[in-house]
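In this supplementary section we document a worked example of the pipeline. Step one takes a protein sequence of length 116 as its only input; no multiple sequence alignment statistics are reported here. Step two produces a three-dimensional model, which step three serialises into C-alpha cells for compact storage. The input and output of this example are shown verbatim.
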Amino acid sequence: MATGSPLTTHVLDTASGTPAVNLKISLFRKDKLGQWTDLFNGKTNSDGRLPGLLTQDTFTMGLYKVTFDTGTYFLEKGVNGFYPYVDVVFEITDPHQHYHVPLLLSPYGYSTYRGS
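The serialised model returned by step three reads:
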C-alpha cells in the first residue's frame, strides 16, 4: 500500500468550479455500543483536500462517518445553502485497501461516491 492515509477525501464546489477551501470535516467511527467516536477534525486545504485523516494502524473494519460542515462553508462565502451539513456513512470491510470519499458540492445539492 502507498504511504499516506488509507482514507482520503476531496471536496469540489461545483457552483464555483473550484476546490472547497477551509471546509470543516469531522471523521467518526461507530463503536461497539453504537455511538459515534470522534477520530479527526480539520479543514480542507487550498486543493479541497484534508490530508492525514487516519494512519494505517488506526484504520480498522467498521462503520465510519464523515461530516462535511457545508452550512458554515457557504455562510462564510456569503451564499445561502440548503444543507447545513452532509453526513456520509460508509462501511470498511478491508482496511488494507485505500478508500477515497469525495464530495461534489453546491448550495442546493451534493453528490458522493467511492473514488479511487
